[in-house]
Amino acid sequence: LQPHHTSSYRCKGYVSLVVSHWSKSEQVTVTVHRVPPLGVSLSVQLQGGQVEFGDSLVLNCAVAMGTGPLSFSWHQEGSGTLLGTGPHLELHHVGDNDSGQYRCWVSNGESVAKSGPLNVTVL
């Protein structure tokens, strides 16, 4: 089911007893809601388990549950800049300004869930 399936439904059938005729059920309204995103988690792909000045870094955002379409946004604490909009954030040639806490926000258009912080330290 998808949200666009929200509607009123009834069934109709041909009854053939003594007198044959069409019969309809009572109308039923079905409302389909999206499942809010839950269980947003972050992971990091590091070469050798640490990131050094000038290296590249990939952060991954995963969602345990939720119906979409889902949209992603990446944020670094203390920065008002939107860093990315996909499930992966690639940081190329990291520098001192890239150290800090990162979060991923996931939205299904009705609600938003935020990951816990992921600490990144550039050596």
UniProtKB/TrEMBL annotation:
<protein>
    <submittedName>
        <fullName>FCRL2 protein</fullName>
    </submittedName>
</protein>
<dbReference type="InterPro" id="IPR013783">
    <property type="entry name" value="Ig-like_fold"/>
</dbReference>
<dbReference type="InterPro" id="IPR007110">
    <property type="entry name" value="Ig-like_dom"/>
</dbReference>
<feature type="domain" description="Ig-like">
    <location>
        <begin position="36"/>
        <end position="121"/>
    </location>
</feature>
<dbReference type="InterPro" id="IPR003598">
    <property type="entry name" value="Ig_sub2"/>
</dbReference>
<dbReference type="InterPro" id="IPR036179">
    <property type="entry name" value="Ig-like_dom_sf"/>
</dbReference>
<dbReference type="Pfam" id="PF13927">
    <property type="entry name" value="Ig_3"/>
</dbReference>
<dbReference type="InterPro" id="IPR003599">
    <property type="entry name" value="Ig_sub"/>
</dbReference>
